Amino acid sequence: MTRTDDSRYLKGGPVAQRIIASVREDALIATAEGFPPKLVSITVGDTDAVDVYVRNQRAKAALAGIGFEERRFAADITAGELEAAIHGLNADPRVTGIIIQRPVPAHIPIKTLQAAVHPLKDVEGMHPASIGNIVYNQLDLAPCTAAASVELLKETGLELKGLEVVVVGHSEIVGKPIAFLLMSEGATVTVCHHMTRSLAAHARRADALFVAVGKPRLIKADMVKPGAAVIDIGINSEIGPDGESRIVGDVDTDSVKEVASWITPVPGGVGPLTVAILLRNTMVALNRQRALYRATYGVADQLAAE
Ligand SMILES: NC(=O)C1=CN([C@@H]2O[C@H](COP(=O)(O)OP(=O)(O)OC[C@H]3O[C@@H](n4cnc5c(N)ncnc54)[C@H](OP(=O)(O)O)[C@@H]3O)[C@@H](O)[C@H]2O)C=CC1
Ligand SMILES: Nc1nc(=O)c2c([nH]1)NC[C@@H]1CN(c3ccc(C(=O)N[C@@H](CCC(=O)O)C(=O)O)cc3)C=[N+]21
């Protein structure tokens, strides 16, 4: 049996295709109504870690009928200059959404940048005001990777209410939002991080195990409960036995797949779905902008008023 024919693999591609097809329908209607959705990506400095992501964003945005523009800034730009650029995008009615690719150089405070994006254009749900929404169980626009990971778990058909879930990694962009989304769904959530005393003991109790750390093969077969669902979020690049560069996750997939009932492959798991959800979030943002403008001015929306 080849890797991808194995039904234990929870693949992101088919789910992503469904989402992109539905986004495309909405995007074509919005465009015909005079409001073409457009996403702007901001990258700062050396962008190796995000190149794959941005390349896929561009390709999938084209498929979905969403405009895409990449703004690249030099590593020595100041935080003030970047904020000014973001304010310009906030004020530009042709721009629907803004995504700031991580990481940014150390001298740029990412939180300040994230807070500079207008909440209505925050397609990643990372503005402090947006991230608060998931605490209040308003889940229609959540951080893309977290939403993608939870959506893949739902593909298993497992009942989330009361499910024992363990999340490894507690970054603000992945681990923490996953924990909040799962709490909203009624799961019992344990969050582990580098200070956790026995990662293995916690991980082994999980019916669903989410891993977002950035360490290849951190999770081995003896850390996984038989029959569990394993969602591998890690994207690590390493040199394979053939001397070629390859992408691997945080889970030792070959051994863990013998124990788990479901496992997300890397590549081909969470990654493609993350991109699809970013595009879906862009349409959620567009619809919010149009609804607010109608409510405020009683006209179709901002462009129509000009
Ligand atoms: N598929 C996708 O769409 C995406 C994939 N990623 C990938 O997911 C991974 C995580 O990304 P991100 O959350 O941004 O990374 P961060 O580096 O921000 O966070 C890593 C987390 O892992 C924890 N950690 C570190 N070492 C251990 C350990 N030995 N045991 C348990 N926990 C540990 C850290 O805890 P502490 O803070 O306490 O040190 C931290 O919370 C990366 O491989 C990244 O490439 C990221 C974004 C999107
Ligand atoms: N603000 C911000 N948000 C992010 O969500 C974010 C980020 N910054 N910085 C970089 C990381 C990484 N990341 C990926 C998303 C999808 C793929 C993806 O599509 N992966 C394909 C790769 C296929 C191929 O190799 O072409 C797959 O896994 O199958 C990869 C990486 C999002 N990140």
From TrEMBL:
Keyword NADP: yes
Ligand binding (NADP(+)): 169-171, 235
Chain ranges of the Tetrahydrofolate dehydrogenase/cyclohydrolase catalytic domain: 10-124
The enzyme's E.C. designation: 1.5.1.5, 3.5.4.9
Top-level taxonomic group: Bacteria
Tetrahydrofolate dehydrogenase/cyclohydrolase NAD(P)-binding domain boundaries: 143-289
Catalytic function, reaction form: (6R)-5,10-methylene-5,6,7,8-tetrahydrofolate + NADP(+) = (6R)-5,10-methenyltetrahydrofolate + NADPH; (6R)-5,10-methenyltetrahydrofolate + H2O = (6R)-10-formyltetrahydrofolate + H(+)
Pathway listed: One-carbon metabolism; tetrahydrofolate interconversion
CDD domains recorded: NAD_bind_m-THF_DH_Cyclohyd
This protein's UniProt keywords: Amino-acid biosynthesis, Histidine biosynthesis, Hydrolase, Methionine biosynthesis, Multifunctional enzyme, NADP, One-carbon metabolism, Oxidoreductase, Purine biosynthesis
Keyword DNA-binding in record: no
Pfam family, one: THF_DHG_CYH_C
Family: Belongs to the tetrahydrofolate dehydrogenase/cyclohydrolase family.
Its biological purpose: Catalyzes the oxidation of 5,10-methylenetetrahydrofolate to 5,10-methenyltetrahydrofolate and then the hydrolysis of 5,10-methenyltetrahydrofolate to 10-formyltetrahydrofolate.
Subunit (UniProt): Homodimer.
Protein known as: Bifunctional protein FolD
Organism: Mesorhizobium australafricanum
Lineage of source species: Bacteria, Pseudomonadati, Pseudomonadota, Alphaproteobacteria, Hyphomicrobiales
